[in-house]
Design the sequence.
């Protein structure tokens, strides 16, 4: 059962989010007869199955939990990881700029833990496809497990290996690179991306950007954009509304471009 295929009540097999005090989240798959155990007490799965979403539950020690449907952002934020994953604030902008939606074939290099892969797989729908390459076997296996956990693995073709020799795919709609040296892969991207297609990448330093930009121009990529996304939350207290003490500031530089037949002369 897909994690986002929900009814008005929680059912056996649903992935649910249990929100406790201070917004602490737990993600579980409901199973008849199972018991959810936490330091705040136990909850019977049978007590959750059949309950409307948003219901308040109480563990055997008296601690409250709310039964919620997880959103895509929740799934990505809580994904099992070995390295830093991409933040929803960046992913949201990436998928909008690159036109990721039903029926799209998106190619990714640098699967990592599979956070962005998960978002791509969710958005391309049953008619789209995600192909993702990863050099590290440990990360490759972790991403596979993460995608299987949310029932999206059937939309993703995970490949283990380097792509310096090129991608096998051709005429894909979009390519995203999460690699420390994307400038070494631009010709390979060009060969696989359809004309007019989208290229995106995330980079941690400006040094990498300055090395990448001229290579993009040399390989006929145009309409290039470089940006970063910052997100500030506010404390939801209507009598003392103010920003929270922390904010999700710089997480990486985003670079986008479009594949064209001939790079236009820059003004």
Sequence:
């Amino acid at each position: 059962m897909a994690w986002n295929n929900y009814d008005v009540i929680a059912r056996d097999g649903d992935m649910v989010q249990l929100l406790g005090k201070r917004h602490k989240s737990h993600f579980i798959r409901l199973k008849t007869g199972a018991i959810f155990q936490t330091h705040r007490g136990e909850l019977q799965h049978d007590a959750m199955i059949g309950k409307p979403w948003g219901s308040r539950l109480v563990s055997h020690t008296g601690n409250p939990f709310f039964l919620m449907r997880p959103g895509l952002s929740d799934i990505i934020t809580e994904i099992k990881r070995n390295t830093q994953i991409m933040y929803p604030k960046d992913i949201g902008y990436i998928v909008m700029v690159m036109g990721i939606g039903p029926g799209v074939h998106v190619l990714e290099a640098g699967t990592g833990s599979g956070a962005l892969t998960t978002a791509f797989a969710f958005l391309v729908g049953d008619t789209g496809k995600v192909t993702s390459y990863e050099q590290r076997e440990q990360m490759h296996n972790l991403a596979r497990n993460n995608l299987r956990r949310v029932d999206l693995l059937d939309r993703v073709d995970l490949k283990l290996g380097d792509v310096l020799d090129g991608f096998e795919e051709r005429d894909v709609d979009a390519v995203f690179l999460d690699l420390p040296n994307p400038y070494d892969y631009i010709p390979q991207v060009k060969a696989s991306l359809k004309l007019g297609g989208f290229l995106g990448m995330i980079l941690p330093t400006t040094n990498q950007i300055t090395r990448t930009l001229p290579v993009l121009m040399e390989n006929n990529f145009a309409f290039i954009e470089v940006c970063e996304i910052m997100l500030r939350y506010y404390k939801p207290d209507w009598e003392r509304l103010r920003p929270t003490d922390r904010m999700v500031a710089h997480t990486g530089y985003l670079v986008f471009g479009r594949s064209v037949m001939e790079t236009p002369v820059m003004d």
The domain at 73-259 is CATH 3.40.50.150 (Rossmann fold).
